[in-house]
Structures are given as C-alpha cells and as structure tokens.
Amino acid sequence: MMKRDLSADWSQDLGALDLRGNAFGIGGVHHNPPPEAVVAQTAALKPRMVRIFLQEFFYIYDKKENADGTVLGARASGLWCADGTSTLPVNADGTSTLPVFDWSRLDPYMDAVHAMGGDIMASICIKPKALYPVVDEYVWRPTDVAEWQGVVKALVLRYGKEKPYVTHWAVANETNIGEWGGCPYHIADPDDMFEYYRMTAEPIREVLPGAKVGGPSYAGGGEGAAKYLARVAELCVQNGVALDFTCYNAYCDTPEQHVAGARVIREALDRHIPGLPLYMTEFNIGICNEPSLEEKAHDPKRAASLAASIIALHDGGALAGTFQYHIYDQWCDPREFAPWYAKARYMAEHWNDIGHRLGLFDQFGAPRPQYQMYKMFYELDAGRRAALTGTDSFLRGLASRGADGTLSLLLTNFAETGASDMILQIRFANAPEGVYTLDVRRIGETQGEHRVVYVHNDFHFDVFTPANNVTLIQLRVKS
C-alpha cells in the first residue's frame, strides 16, 4: 500500500474559505415539486443558491381567442393579468377578456424550492403556444415581442416581487444544442442569442431593476463556450445592454479538464467584461462514460470525482460557483413535452430508460455519497485556509481553521483510472497546543475514528485514505 507524507502549516493564513458557491441545481424534466424528504435534507445543508428551470410544462400562459379576435381568458381566481396586476377585471360570468396567467402548477414547485433555502437562479425556457404556434426548436423569436415581454413581466412580478424567491434570472439553457440539451430553443448564432437576451432581459429589469440577469447556459466548456459567450458579452457592451453573469454546463470526470475549460472561457470573457461572474450551472460526472447502474450511484467514486473537481476549480479561480445537477434523480413523462417539444421520446430515454442517477438523492429522498461529500465540504466553509503540502493530481485537499479553533482537513483520493489506497502520515506545524478530539470520517462508513489527542509542536498521526473516496479529518478543542 502506498505511503505518503502530508503537512499542514496552521500559521499560514491563505484567506477565508468560501465553499457555498458550490451549490445545487434541479428540474427541467417534470413539473412535480421535489419530495418533502429532499427539501428538508437540502435545506439542512443551507445552500446559498439553487438553480432551476422554468419549462413550458408549467403552462403559465395559454391565451385563447374568440371568433371576433377578442381574448377569452380563464376564470379570475388565483390568476394575474398580462399587465402584472393581481386584481383582474372580470365579466359578469367570472371570465376575463384580458390575457391571464395560471400559476397552479408553478407555485407549488417554486414554494418547495424556496423552502430549500438560499436564493434561486431561474433559467427561463418557456415557449407558450400562443407565441410559438409551431413546434420548432430553431424558432426563437415570438410572434409578438411585446406580448412575450408581457409574459416575462408577469413571471418576474410573481416570483421576484409577490413571492420574492428569484434573485438571478438566466435567459435560456444550452441554446447551442437546443432540444438535445433538454430545452426548446436552438440558437446557434450568438448574435441571435444576443437579440433574444435583449428582448427578454428588458422586461425583467423594468420590473426588478436590482435583479441579476444573465445567460445563456452553454452546453460544454472550452473553446466553443468561450467564443459563443464572449460574443454575447461583446454585443452587450457594444449595445449598452447589461449582462450580470453568464453560464455553461459540463459533465466530466477529469479535474484538469474542468479547470482548463473554465479558464479559457474566463480569459475570453475578460476581454469584454472583466470579472463577469461565470457559473457552471450543470456540474457532474461524465454521464456517457459508463453504463448507468443503480449500484454505481452508491459508489463513493462519484463523490470523490466531484470533490476533486471542486477543489481544482476553487483553486483555479475562474468561476463564481457551480451547481451540482440534479439534487435528486429525475423521471420524465414524455406526454408533458409532446405538445411543445419534438424530441419527447429522447427526453424519456435519458430520464427513464437510462435514468443517469446523478442526484444527491434518489427519487424518494434517500441520500447518496455526494450528499455526504457536500456536508463535509460545508463544514470547512468560512474557515481560514491553511497551507497544505504533499498533495498532487491524485490526492487533493483543503485545510481549514474554524472560528472555534477546529482544525479540519478534507482529502479526496481520486483518479479516473489508477487510484490506489494510501496511508498518510500527516504532520502539523504551528498548531495551537492543547487537548483535542480527533475525528476521521470517510464516505460510506458508519463509524470512523474518534479519540482524544494532545497536539504539540511536531504532532503527527497516520490516516488511511481509500482509493476513490473522500476523508474528513477534524480536531476539535476539547472542553
């Protein structure tokens, strides 16, 4: 078994650790609110932000016209007018002649996500039949731009003011691949994407001047994302259109590839809007590298892969945050997609036949190793980072000193191939002397190590770090 030396110097303060920028994403596949068990356990993590999709299957806007061209609205109860007011003028029979909005599907969903805690980033992917009568992913311009902007205003009023849940509004998702990416817009030309962004961002800012507006989420990182997103940013600058953030999605098991992909986008954006916040809005393992099996969903290797990439991306400094996608495993009823989506069977294949099993939880709220991994990461959040030597591309780690004096090491022993078990001799330098309780936890273990130790000037101890696993070591001052 491989033996390694690892050293932490607690006198070197490398700044505060901000790890809650690594959060979670959900949705885009069905309209059902997440189960209570998923909501409660996610809320226990206290995420800073949750990213969601606003898909057409929520059916918030369905205008119908009479033969004379006047609009026949639905009954007024619980609905909003197109002008955003909550008091709807009605006829004697209780119907309205103004366009109305139905929040009966989306409200429960938004309430459940809000209960998870934190802000919400909402990706606008709706495509109402009234404005997009033909099912065609390449049609991005609505039949009536002013009416589209009225729909967006109502959406933002509902979930930015009446229910002040959403702080970040993202315009569209994976527009470079359209329906292959699970959303109904295929906007291959970034110049067209800019026009779609401009006409959608305008009503958002009109309703909520302080809201963050950005997008789109590009499918994949690297040069392709860099060129597309940088062109949108360039056009925003040239035309005086504000862009508060932009995003991309990447599924990959290689930390170095994640970092390289983020860096090239960062460099391209900085040529137009230096420091523009860049998010990876869908972050997970490579989903096409191996069969999707239930047994693999419980393998700590997935959590170790994500942990290694989070540490590498954190040190890379290119991103404002990541969203692990999904919070819980998704399923798809293709009948929800069929009225407005040509590739409904494709969606069902991915989220029923294949399944992917990417969640922190299964469909019913049973936690996976990734959930335990994020709990470990968050225990280091807001601590002061200390110097850690002896890590490499197999063994990655963070050292954190908490406000209460707790000394923590989070270590991930991961490689796509070739990872091996290690015994680490860990040495502390310049740690405050005293009596501590030493706890060691690994993913998948029901009971780790727990003992009392005296920390002195040359304190050292041995720890076993299994291949493709995550280990949390904590020394707490004994009261």
Overview of the structural elements:
By secondary structure, the protein is of the alpha/beta class. It has 11 helices and 21 strands. It folds into 2 domains: 2-14 and 384-477, Golgi alpha-mannosidase II (Immunoglobulin-like), CATH 2.60.40.1180; 18-60 and 103-377, Glycosidases (TIM Barrel, Alpha-Beta Barrel). The protein has helices spanning 36-45, 106-115, 145-162, 190-207, 223-239, 255-270, 294-297, 300-316, 334-337, 344-354, 369-380, and strands spanning 2-16, 22-25, 49-55, 64-65, 71-72, 79-81, 100-102, 119-125, 166-171, 212-219, 245-251, 278-284, 321-325, 384-389, 395-401, 407-413, 422-429, 434-442, 449-455, 460-465, 469-477. The strands form 4 sheets. The chain has a 9-stranded mixed sheet, covered by helices on one side. Strands 2-3-8-9-10-11-12-13 form an 8-stranded parallel β-barrel, surrounded by 5 helices. The chain starts with a strand and ends with a strand.
List keywords for this structure.
single chain, 479 residues, alpha/beta, Immunoglobulin-like, TIM Barrel, 2 domains, eight-stranded parallel β-barrel, 29% helix, elongated
Summary?
The protein is an alpha/beta fold and 479 residues long.
CATH superfamily of the largest domain: Glycosidases
Structural domain count: 2
Distance between the termini: 37 Å
Would you tell me the overall average pLDDT?
Answer: 92
Strand portion: 25-35%
Helix percent reads 25-40%
